[in-house]
Amino acid sequence: MSSRRKLLSFPWLLSLLLLSGRLADAQVPAATRHTFTKSAHLMGSHFTFTVVAADDSTGERALRAGLGEVRRIDRLMSFWDSTSEVVRVNRAAGLRPVAVSAETFDLITRTLRLSKISDGAFDITFASADKLYKFDRQAHPALPDSAAVRASVRRIGWQKIRLDAAKHTVFLPSTGMRINLAGILQGYGLRRARQVLEGFGLRGGLLNGSGDIYCWGRQADGSLWRVAIGNPDHPNSVAAFVDVTDMAVVTAGNYEQYFTVDGVVYGHIINPHTGYPSVGLRSVTILCPDVELADGLDEVVFVKGPTAGLAFINKLKGVDCTLITDDNRTLASRGMTLNFYHGTSPAARP
Questions:
Q1: Which residues fall within 8 angstroms of residue 145, CB to CB, at 6 or more apart?
Q2: Residue range 107-142, pLDDT digits in tens
């Protein structure tokens, strides 16, 4: 699980290029284009929303409302905001149950379902261990003391969370136990933002939450939305792309938040079973119609590793995955289809 919010930025791996939209600029008269874009700093990350609307007023009002919905969710469930419901639950760990909103209760309930089907690879109690590491991109002399890591793992465990559906309470039974919804919160925020935006009657949109992409409908010229996937060894380059609609394209990687020990890179996604950072993968990209689910699945694959992770994805209907291993192999699930640029090798099927 990610020890902080999702990645702060994706300078190469999952950049929104809207290449077909650029081509359309030269073909569609300006009077018929109604594409609007607005950005904001939310959930500790950069969000950019692009929508297709009938007029300026509708587009601007919709964008403000959509970004405002993400801001509301961040305040409600942030791990960092001292007034959030998640922080209140964590402060009461080992002491008492805490009543939360139906919205927060339902999202926590869904994370526990994902924990169950992934055999604990996704676990919001990973936060019990996150203070052991500093992902500062620096060389560290050693990993934390093994006794400290074992102690932190004893506090981790999604099965320990006690929920009362009648009272909407959440109880963490052990002092020092904490939950963090960062591994799924951006996806949930994008899903709710789309619902808000569709209330304005928009034809389509593409929502980018720090590289987590969620799109529906079409661009102003009627074309699909184009999302590019790059190569970590060549920043700002594009290796492949997908043309999609009604789809989420979500990525996790270890190239933004990490530290090294003896030349080995340790990324920010913690294995809840061991308490140590997950190894074996550099990046994971999930394609799935459900952006909230996709946001959690990328970390599931990271924790499980390339072989078990792809096997897990291949069992799920409507979900595909491509990943890059530590030794720079590009692998893909059985149903994954990418459009590769000239000179790029297609992904292998293990």
A1: none
A2: 999 999 999 999 999 999 999 886 788 999 999 999
Q: What is the DSSP letter of 219?
A: -
- The reported pLDDT for the residue numbered 345 is 54
Q: Give me 312's structure tokens.
A: 């897990």
Please state which CATH class domain 14-61+203-340 belongs to. alpha beta
The string of pLDDT tens digits covering residues 258-283 is: 899 999 999 989 999 999 999 999 98
Q: Three-state SS for 325?
A: strand
By mean pLDDT, which of 40-49, 225-234, 295-304 is the weakest?
A: 225-234
Compute the CA torsion angle 169, 170, 176, 178 (nearest 10 deg). Answer: -140
Q: Write down the residue that tokens 């920043």 correspond to.
A: 235
* Minimum mean pLDDT range among 68-72, 74-78, 234-238: 234-238
Residue 287, judged by CB atoms within 10 A of its CB (0-12, 13-18, 19+), counts as: buried
The domains of the chain are located at: 14-61+203-340
DSSP-assigned letter for residue 234: B
Q: Helices 291-304 & 306-314, crossing angle to 10 degrees?
A: 140
Which amino acid, one-letter code, is at 339? N
153 CB-near residues (< 8 Å, 6+ apart): 129, 272, 273, 274, 275
H or E segment and range at residue 298? helix 291-304
What is the tally of helices (H) and strands (E) in the chain?
8, 17
Three-state DSSP string of 154-215:
HHCCHHHCEEECCCCEEECCCCCCCCCCHHHHHHHHHHHHHHHHHCCCCCEEEEEECCEEEE
